[in-house]
Amino acid sequence: MKNIRVLILLFILSSCGDNTVDVRLPAANVSPNFNYVLDTVFIDAGDEQIYLDMELNMSDYSVNEGLLYNLKPETGRVEVINIDSLRLDSLINYKIQGPNSVKQYFPFGIKKTLFGDTFFKEYRIIHKLNSSGKKIDSYELINRELTGDKLPFDTEIDGLGEISSDGSFLASFYGNFKIGGNVLGIAKVNLIDRSLKLVPIDFWDQLKKYTVTVDYDIGKRNSSPEMKFLLLNGPDIILSTSASNELWYYDSESESVIHKEFHSQITSDQKSGKYREDINNQQLYMYWVKRKNDEVTFGPLIKDHTAQRFYRYSRELNTNDPQKPFYVYVLTVFDETLEQISEHRLNNSIPIMGKYFEGKSFVHKGSIYSYLKKENELAFVRLKPSFESN
To answer: Are strands 125-129 and 135-140 parallel, antiparallel or unpaired?
Structure first.
């Protein structure tokens, strides 16, 4: 991230007070000798039934091992899937009772580190087991258990955070997650010395305008918010959303935030935010949710650790011909400094995962694997991009 640090340094030298840098980037090359191979692959589970109720959102892909660890939270079972052989490799049954229990409330995430340790994430609590399966630590994500910055009154750290590959820290959103509350920024919890660093980022108000809400009666409400994504890049943190073509980059060395806005030559750069507000019945609510979902939608950034590139899928309904509307699918490519280097329109029939890219996605040996929902069977859409030099 050398270029990013240069930008940060220039900003610090030329201003004071605000530590967020805004960078507006030019449009990228649309098709620089790009091609791809697309197929669907299935995992051979033998006589076992792979846990798919959470669409792999509780799983962790280990880059150095090429293995996917999929957690079944009710029982503590972890399915180890070999991505090379496309087979269920083994099963690990962790304890949910006793001194080595990985379950205090309800585990909803797992992380396998480079050193063989395994973390289990729960609401406000993290359990750490060594390579032998012995619990060696637990962390409670509350003020009285952490030094450093203090969470403001009536706020908390979102348990759906990401743990670094070396197991040294957790990063997640913090704020008031009740109806009408605000996300205030990113919390970085050092798991070595149990210290807390809060990084305020003002993005929640703009994200609220993309939410469609229905009020059934007094005190009864349902809503369709946009997704917010968090990705670790070494010690640094990347934040993006499904609603707009931008990101926030927290550089841990300088403790500064860079805000980058991108431009697409294929899709819109953000949702319209123009939705009816006086919705009071389910039918009208679903109509406006569909209208919003048909607008441009950006998926999470996915890192290729070998090529040092980032990928992102996006999608938008093309209505130039109202009689034959169709979705336009795009793959955007970013370099290691998160500069947008190219974007590519994909075949219209590509079965990219759900409306908001909620399924698991990762890069294995240069191919992008995206969870594909199938009845009682684990499958992935696999896209292998290729770039030819001029």
So the answer is: antiparallel
Distances (CA, A) of 64 to 114, 115, 301: 7, 11, 19
- What is the token pair recorded at 199? 């990084």
Instruction: Tell me the two tokens of residue 192.
Output: 């070595």
Q: How far apart are CA 354 and CA 33, in angstroms?
A: 28
Q: What's the CA gap between 52 and 67, in Å, rounded?
A: 17
Of 273, 276, 272, 249, give the one whose Cα is nearest residue 260: 249
pLDDT digits (tens, 9 = 90+) for 299-327: 999 999 999 999 999 999 998 888 899 88
Work out the burial of residue 240: count CB atoms within 10 Å of its CB; fewer than 13 is exposed, 13-18 middle, 19 or more buried. Answer: buried
Give dist(CA 287, CA 282) in Å, integer.
9
Rounded-to-integer distance, Cα 185 and Cα 239, Å: 9
Question: Mean pLDDT lowest for which of 77-86, 238-247, 367-376?
Answer: 367-376
pTM, 2 dp:
0.88
On whether the CB atoms of residues 158 and 172 are closer than 8 A, the answer is yes
Which range (18-22, 61-65, 154-158, 165-169) has the least confidence?
18-22
Q: How many CB atoms lie within 10 A of CB 357?
A: 23
